Sequence to fold (279 residues):
Amino acid sequence: MKDPGVRFHLLTRGRRTLAVASAFREEAPFLFDGIDGAAPVGWVQGRRRHPVVALSGGRRVVVRKLVHGGILGRALGEIFWGANRPLKEFIAMVRASEKGIPVPAAVGARIDRLALGFYRGDLLSLEIAGALDLGEILRGEWQDLPAPRRARLLAAAGRALRQMHDAGLYHPDLNLKNVLLRWDGEEPTIFFVDLDGARFYQALTFRQRRSVLWRLARSADKIAPPGGEVAAVDRLRFLCAYAGADADLAARLRRSFVDIPSTSVYRRFWWAVTSGGPS
Fold:
């Protein structure tokens, strides 16, 4: 069963609609169209570079233009049809924040309607300064991280994902690029981004939890450079942090990872076709 929606404010003019979180209602006129002409004060890297624009009070908003991934990305780019993806993701972010799940503060969503039900959309969220996604870390500094620091990172990521799942949020497409890490001194803080397709349930099944964990493991296989694969002991540390004090869950997860579908030749070929190869 999904959780109900959340309160937000709508502003519509012409073919554009803005949904804005209550905390940013006073910024609505600027968010509606002012950010289009604002000079970026920074950039965030995703599938493409997203501009960061300054708000009042020293706050900075990331303007993420939604684009298709894989083959659809090459064919349609930023053009969508049907279900209102920006609004759904915005609502998921607000609900996740209300439930204590570590996500960026949701600012708003913009939808520009085109002809015949097609549209373009932006998702607006507060910037998490100094954060890197786990994919960047795995490709870069992972092998050079001191063992204690690596252990803290894995423990924080495992606990954060368990927190997400215990709150009832199922993300069927979670990968390492959607998990951000910020070091606050020696303490790691985890954030989840890109909640497209995420859904809330009263409780997640073991199968749902396992599917997310399997997908993260395959994401690590895809992203890791040759010779930089995540070691079995590090995967185990992550699973143990996820399981916490639940010994039965820890045992089931360890058994399930023995049977994890392999990163097959077919899967690697599919990655090459849809994303230009492991990145």
The mean pLDDT is 86. The chain has two domains: 9-126, 132-273. The first strand starts at residue 9 and ends at 13. The chain has nine helices and 13 strands.
